[in-house]
Amino acid sequence: MSSSALSLRPVTLRLPRGPGSLLVQIETALAAEGQPLRWAIVAVEPAADPQAGPGGAVLTIEAVVLA
Q1: What's the pLDDT at 56?
Q2: Distance between CA 32 and CA 39 in Å, rounded?
Q3: Cα 35–chain centre separation
Q4: HEC sequence for the chain
Q5: What is each CA distance from 43 to 8, 25, 31, 60, 66, in whole angstroms?
C-alpha cells in the first residue's frame, strides 16, 4: 500500500438531539469526520435546557471512520 492509503480513526461526538430523523442527524455529523464504518450511541443525557422539548437530549456517539 502507498503512503496515501486510507486509515481508520476513532471518533467520539456529543450530538444534541434535534427534531427529525435521528439516523440522518448521526450520519450527517459523522460524515464531517470521514466515512463511517461503524458507530454506536453509548450515552444519552438530558439536555441542559428544560425547554428543549421531548427530543431534547445530548447523545454521545462513538465511531470508527475512514480518514
Answers
A1: 81
A2: 14
A3: 12
A4: CCCCCCCEEEEEEEEECCCCCHHHHHHHHHHCCCEEEEEEEEEEEECCCHHHCCCCEEEEEEEEEEC
A5: 23, 16, 20, 5, 23
How many angstroms separate the CA atoms of 63 and 29, rounded?
Answer: 11
| Residue 64 to residues 19, 25, 33, Cα–Cα distance (Å) | 25, 17, 10
Computed from CA positions of residues 34, 35, 38, 44, in that sequence, does the dihedral angle turn out positive or negative?
positive
Q: What is the per-residue pLDDT across 17-27, written as a single tens digit (0 to 9) for each?
A: 988 999 999 99
Rg (CA), the chain: 14
Residue found by looking up cell 450515552 in the block: 43
